[in-house]
Amino acid sequence: MTFDNSTGSPQFDSLGLKRVINGRSWVTVLGGSRMPSEVQQAMADAADTFIDFHELNRRAGERIAQYTGAEAGLVVAGASTGLLVQAAACMAGQDPDRILQLPDTAGMKDEILIYEKHRFGFEICYRTAGAKIKEWGRGEGSLAEQLAGAINEDTAAVTYVFGPGFPCDLSLREVVAIAHEHEVPVVVDGAAMLPPADNLTKYIADGADLVTFSGGKGVRGPQSTGILAGRADLVESARLNMSPHASVGRACKVAKEEVAGLLAALDRFVTMDHEAEWATWRVWSEAIVAAGENLSGVRAVIEDGHPNRQGPAAAFYFDDDWDGPSASEIQDRLAAGNPSIHVGVGNEVGEIYVSPVALEPGEAELVAEALWTVLRG
Q: Who's near 321: CB < 8 A, 6+ residues apart?
């Protein structure tokens, strides 16, 4: 099969960059996701205008609230900023002196509780706001008892992380019930949890006080944007704690073009046919899985609904009979090619997976051909 070896961007081509085929999902390290034409047009239209940014934030927040079922919403600079301003909002509230004091939290409740199986690298976003991370879940007694026992006079919030690889040993509803009994808010990181589209409203419906999602990834807005939704008082505090205000989130600036792009992406996301898109991903996964057929020591399967996948995916498991390259070697060889094909190495030893969610028509066949060659090389 022939292919165009350019990146599709004259600027990137002028830098000597290789074309990348993204079989790892909507990861930021590969550029996130492709923005649909209506999103790009919305950004271009906004580029030549001036607006009152405070009013833009409020009006955009109303649209987000409408789509999430929350009291209020806010466009933030990626889900990571959502985490930062979640922490700031829960610690400083709308007190102007406390807002200016952050990240110094003297005199404030400043502990964020996190389940031990939800520990993750992006806790740095909470700490950037000045919060201290307190782990729970390794003690004695039921998880519900442990969470209740971890809450004290310094607890600013309880966080709940949704995502591939994060177990839900206590449901969000259970965590909310315990935290709210102690008058402590619950903040949710759902960065990678759209689609499915139901999650846009589910976490708010389950009682979360603040929820953040990526505005890129499956929403396919600008990768530098995020969605924050929740209680009106906490969203207002979050707004005061980020740009254009001179507060702890000042560096997390969202441009007017990005706000317009995210709103266009959300409009598209809530009206699109997600079942049809899912079916397309499955067809592409079937083409990729065929590369592993009739190979001793290889089990090639389509995983649809797997908790560590964001849609149908082609997974390859290598058992003791396999005498070919290791999973990491396969990944490296594919990435070294031209085009550079990026696939994931899974949580299990001897596993690679190809997520089709960021592929374009024709790319699944290129991935399958390259895999066929590497597996038999």
A: 296, 297
pLDDT of residue 348: 61
Tokens of 348: 């299990």
β-sheet bridge partners, residue 159: 114, 187
Q: Is 8 exposed, middle or buried (0-12, 13-18, 19+ CB in 10 A)?
A: exposed
Domain 37-271, CATH number (from 3.40.50.300, 3.50.50.60, 3.40.190.10, 3.40.640.10): 3.40.640.10
- Judge contact between 210 and 256, C-beta under 8 A: no
Query: Contact 301/315 with Cβ under 8 angstroms?
Result: yes
This prediction's pTM:
0.93
The parts of the chain modelled with pLDDT lower than 50 are 1
The yes/no answer on whether domain 10-31+273-376 falls in CATH 3.40.50.300 is no
- Distances from the Cα of 237 to the Cαs of 71, 104, 213, 247, 250, in angstroms? 13, 17, 18, 11, 13
DSSP H helical segments within the chain, as ranges? Answer: 10-14, 37-47, 53-68, 78-92, 96-101, 123-128, 143-150, 172-181, 199-205, 232-240, 256-271, 274-289, 327-336, 363-376
Q: Give the pair of three-digit tokens for residue 142.
A: 């039921």
Q: How far apart are CA 176 and CA 206, in angstroms?
A: 8
Residue extents of the structural domains in the chain: 10-31+273-376, 37-271
